[in-house]
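Record passed on underneath.
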Amino acid sequence: MKDLAAPLLEGVRIVNDKADVDPDDFEPPNQAFALTPRVLTGGAPNLVAVHSNNLDNLPPLVNATTLHLGTNNFFSSFEFNTQILTNLAAACPFLSTLSIHGRYVGTLDVAGVAMPSLRFLWFESGNTDTLVATFLTKVEMPNLESLWLDCPHNEVINTVRNHHPRPYFPALKYLTLQRFDYFSSSKFAQVFPTIEALHLSFCSGYHVSFLTGALVQDDLSHWQSLRTLVFRTTSERHIKKLSESINQIVTKRESGGRPVQRVLLDRDLLAALSTEKSVRAFTSLEELRADNYDDPWWIVSHTDTRDRL
């Protein structure tokens, strides 16, 4: 595919399977070639959506609006360093949707990088918080609307919160925290104060009191624009505790003049709350479906389009 031209191609998925490679023998790609087009170099002027787990074999990205990098495959690691991040911003001037998944190595020391067109950002990284924290503190994203984080949350938010100056995302409406432990809820509220929808996905219920505290503190100053709460859980033993917290959050925010208008829940949580008349009196309780939550990342994850993850 190196020299091919694809004048009508709008989307491409490039998979480099390293299933037979020992992770101890992994070598990151040559930095000099990172983000330099290596396939479809004959031209792909209509290519707007790219999925790849190999930064060393990318097509032209000049018109890309959607870029999904990486994989959940344990063996698919690659370097993501300062030069690559700087090149990414320059190579994709129209990029609005970016997701980065998997294992990464490399040193990040970034300054002066701007991605003004970026609206939707997703990180899934279990091995390091460095890449996530660097993006959030050093890359200017004034139009970011939706942020999905599945990473070491406490380490990331401590770095972002203590950074000077603290980054600000004025357009952010949707925040998803996946596998979150609730402990740093107040810190997330301080860093991302503008959100209108909070999605807590597959989180442990042990520290849910910290979320309750952040949302129902005396002056209700945290997340003043919040109108939608979304919960998904994987453990039945947390359902009772989560149900009690949701009831308390909805009731107190209603009485304080900052109501939660919608609560979207998985089936088990909805069943547990269905008998709570006080909750139903103050908010709309619904089962979370593929078609009733308008976070762009939720839509991308459940719609069969070229942009789908």
